[in-house]
Amino acid sequence: MRRSGEKRVPEPETPRRLDLPDVPDWKRVSPRYVLVEIVGTVLFGLALCGGAVVLWLVVGLEWAPYLIGAIVLVTLLTVLFEPRRVRAIGYQLRQDDLLFRRGIMFTRFVSVPYGRMQLVDITRGPIARWLGLADLKFVTAAASSGVLIPGLAEADAESLRDRLVELAESRRAGL
Length: 175
Fold this sequence. Notes:
The mean pLDDT is 86. The chain has 175 residues and is an alpha+beta fold. Helix content is 43%, strand content 23%. The longest helix has 27 residues. The chain has one domain: Pleckstrin-homology domain (PH domain)/Phosphotyrosine-binding domain (PTB) (PH-domain like, Roll). InterPro entries: YdbS-like_PH (IPR005182). Keywords: Membrane, Transmembrane, Transmembrane helix.
């Protein structure tokens, strides 16, 4: 509560955007990764539609056709947003850590210090393997800081893995 005669001190403005002045251009995932995401979304939508059809024909739920329509609509909207969502994924190797970002509306930034990396793993799903893509996963001691960079070209994923293992070993040796 303010007393009469007291001046109100203005609160400092908080920046609306994370300022990363030392981070140049972000490295992006392969544009072919959009196809992996679209195929996954369509297959998931088809599985949900199949379940709704079973509810309709076997169980006899009268509202199941509306559910099928909603599933188709959500699947189509998701497919339309996939290219933009994939373009929002990026990473940057900085001096002491790897910075990863993803998300359009809810942007997530994760910084993984090289000395804290315990495991760097490459995985390839069937569609990604067909397109020559791989996912690079980092595991640290903290469960919440695991990072997965999807949709890297296989050669890029392997060279990045080797570079990160080298950096992690050199940083841990200094601890």
